[in-house]
Amino acid sequence: MNRNTTAAVMADDANYIAHTYSRAPVVFVRGQGSRLWDADGREYIDCGSGIAVTSFGIADEQWQAAVSAQAAAVQHVSNLYHTAPQARLAAMLCEATGMQKVFFGNSGAEANECAIKAMRKYSSDKYGPGRHTILTLKHSFHGRTLATLAATGQDAFHKHFGPFPEGFDYIEPGDTAALAARLKRGDCCGMLVELVQGESGVRVVDKQWIQVAAQLCRQWDVLFAVDEVQTGNGRTGTLYAWQQYGIRPDLFTTAKGLAGGLPLGACVFAASTADVLGPGDHGSTFGGNPVCAAGAISILERIDAALLEKVKQKGEYLRRRLENTPGITDVSGLGLMLGFSAQKPAAQVAAECRGKGLLVLTAHDRVRLLPALNIPHHLLEQAADILQEVCKP
Ligand SMILES: Cc1ncc(COP(=O)(O)O)c(C=O)c1O
User: Is the CB of 38 under 6 A from ligand 1?
Assistant: First the structure.
């Protein structure tokens, strides 16, 4: 029996894989750039990029060459030793952002765990115990570990798995009075924010308010951290979204698109936090693995001013098309991170799009688009045409 057919893979999945995902009935076997093919030979335009991961598309040649060469040289040596790709990647991240140090993990949640630990240690070193609360925003998403679930500002994520680590509190974006009052209690060490809240429907947090929040935090010596797990690595039209928000965080985290399809997360520290974590304070067996780091170098090398300009232009084109599509409302987002509401349920839009050869994502009741940074214009045009057909009232 051929176990690679759609039916056989779905049967093995149903029998042997924990049912934590509601997967679409598609088995992908091959891809090229922004196109994917399933086991039945059907072709799709990819406007999801594996949820903002495959920054330059599927099987990108430059990425493949970098990853294959490193896999053939040294695939892993543990963080007891140095490797050139990890050191080079850290230097690239710091030089591109004006930051000073990087800790590498394997995922967004782990990058955020590192940020949470660092913010708490900063405060405990400087002020002693009791000042450990981390403020996050309502509607945020920060990961699936216990601490990052606790950090996530959505009640739906705070069920079943308790007790959760304590020391998190949530502020409605834009509510300056609530933030000021919460800071005044004197038990906060940090604030962690997403600038565009991807998982809750691509909600762009107001730039001026973020500047006010960062300033208020500074007044209380409360560290200001940005979760760039989804928004980072060129997605919003700047290398990191905070670079268009007129702020300079004390630390930021990223993952997803960083290594173009390999698991890599990073917590990046400014001068204020660079030396908070010392030997033995944190670690990861695979974090900053040289193959993942080589992949990430091949991604970061190409996210230059010209590429970012194209991301903005493509984002504007797609936004215009969506805004002019009957049946689509409330288009939001930055760069190539866009969301919208439709008259049909988002899941139905995604299923109908898939039936017509287009992959889109949902986030709550919204449709979400995260195409590769280099998606060719003609594929964006085709994607917008399909969305127009599917969403028409
Ligand atoms: C903003 C944000 N933070 C953290 C995470 C968690 O990342 P990971 O799934 O790599 O742990 C996600 C994932 O969607 C995210 O969007």
Answer: no
142, 233, 262, 292, best to mutate for ligand 1 pocket (most atoms within 8 Å of CB)? 142
Q: What is the 3-state secondary structure (H, E, C) of 112-147?
A: HHHHHHHHHHHHHHHHCCCCCEEEEEECCCCCCCHH
Q: 113, 105 in Cβ contact below 8 A? A: yes
**Side-chain-side CA neighbours of residue 154 (13 Å):** 16
Q: Is the C-alpha dihedral spanning 306, 315, 231, 49 positive or negative? A: negative
From the centroid of its chain, how far is CA 305?
21
CA dist., res. 144 & res. 162, Å (int): 13
Q: How do strand 203-204 and strand 28-32 relate by DSSP bridges?
A: unpaired
Instruction: Report the SS3 class of residue 361.
Output: strand
CB 287 within 8 A of CB 79: yes
Q: What is the pLDDT of residue 2?
A: 87
Domains delineated in the chain:
6-55+304-391 (3.90.1150.10), 62-300 (3.40.640.10)
Which pLDDT tens digit goes with each residue over 198-231? 999 999 999 999 999 999 999 999 999 999 999 9
Measured from the CB, is residue 252 less than 6 Å from ligand 1?
A: no
128's CB contacts (< 8 A; 6+ apart) are none
**CA atoms 370, 371, 374, 378: torsion sign:** negative
Report whether residue 229 contacts ligand 1, using a CB cutoff of 6 Å.
Answer: yes
196 lines ligand 1 (CB under 6 A): no
Q: Which residues of 205-225 are buried (b: 16+ CB within 10 A; e: fewer)?
A: beeeebeebbebbeebebbbb
Instruction: Enter the pTM of the model.
Output: 0.98
